[in-house]
Design a protein that fits this description.
The chain is an alpha/beta fold. It is built from seven helices and twelve strands. The strands form four sheets. The chain has a five-stranded parallel β-sheet. The longest helix has 13 residues. It is globular and about 50 Å long.
Length: about 220
C-alpha cells in the first residue's frame, strides 16, 4: 500500500497516465507521457534503492496511450493461481543472442506464452502457441508439451513479465533446457524491426496494437 501511494504520487508529479500493478512478487505496468517526463519518472525511481534495478521497455507514440492513471495492489501481478518459486525462473537470452540462434543452425522451439489472440495478431516465425485464452490456463496447456520437455525452448511474451512466471512453473514440472527472451518482443523488435517477428504486437493500453516493423499482417484485432 505504501508503494501504491508512492507510484501514484510520482506519476501525478511527472504528469503521467498509465496502469501499474503491485504485488509481493513484484510490479508490472505501463505509463505514458512526454519523453522528458518519462525520463524524470525513471530517474526518481532509480534513486530509490528498492527500484534501482527496475527495467523498462520503451516505445514512442504520437499520443498518450492511456486515458487515466490506475495504480492497484494485487495478490498476483501475473495471475496464475498456483504457487511458484520465482527464484527458479529460466535463464535469459538477449535479443542479440536470440537473433543469432534464429539466423543460425540452432535447433530451438519458440514458445509463445501469451494468449492465443495475441499470437494470431503477431508472432515469431515458426513459433508454437500453447494455446490459452488467459494465463491461468498455462499449467493445463503445459501438460500437453511432454514430448518437448527436454528440447531447447525459448519462451517469449510482450515484455518478458509473463515468461518470468511461466518458466519458473515449467521448470518445476520438469522442463530442463528452458530460456526466456529478455525484454520480450518489445526489446527484440526495437533492435530488429521487421526481422523474425511477423505481424503486429498486441499491447495492453488504448492503442491495442503496436508496430513491429513487419510488412506482414496476420490478423485483425477485434
Amino acid at each position: 500500500e505504501e508503494m501504491q501511494i508512492l507510484f501514484r504520487n510520482l506519476c501525478e508529479e511527472c504528469g503521467l497516465k498509465g496502469r501499474i500493478l503491485l504485488g509481493k512478487e513484484g510490479l508490472n505496468g505501463g505509463v505514458s507521457g512526454k519523453i522528458e517526463d518519462i525520463e524524470m519518472f525513471k530517474k526518481e525511481l532509480h534513486q530509490n534503492q528498492v527500484f534501482s534495478d527496475l527495467t523498462f521497455r520503451e516505445q514512442e507514440t504520437k499520443e498518450n496511450s492511456y486515458l487515466k492513471l490506475v495504480v492497484r495492489v494485487r495478490d498476483e501481478v501475473v495471475v496464475l493461481g498456483k504457487p511458484v518459486d520465482m527464484s527458479n525462473k529460466a535463464e535469459y537470452v538477449s535479443p542479440e543472442e536470440l537473433k543469432e540462434w534464429l539466423d543460425g543452425d540452432d535447433e530451438i522451439i519458440l514458445l509463445d506464452t501469451r494468449n492465443e489472440y495475441e499470437y494470431e495478431i503477431g508472432r515469431f516465425k515458426g513459433a508454437k502457441v500453447l494455446p490459452i485464452d488467459n494465463f491461468k490456463e498455462l499449467p493445463y496447456a503445459v501438460e500437453k508439451l511432454n514430448q518437448i520437455k527436454n528440447k531447447k525452448i525459448v519462451t517469449y511474451c510482450t515484455g518478458g513479465i509473463r515468461c518470468e512466471k511461466a518458466t519458473a512453473y515449467m521448470k518445476s514440472v520438469g522442463f530442463t533446457n528452458l530460456f526466456q527472451l529478455k525484454g520480450g518482443i518489445i526489446d527484440f523488435v526495437n533492435k530488429f524491426p521487421g526481422q523474425n517477428f511477423e505481424g503486429s504486437l498486441f499491447v495492453f493500453d488504448d492503442r491495442l496494437v503496436a508496430d513491429t516493423g513487419s510488412n506482414k499482417k496476420l490478423s485483425k484485432c477485434k
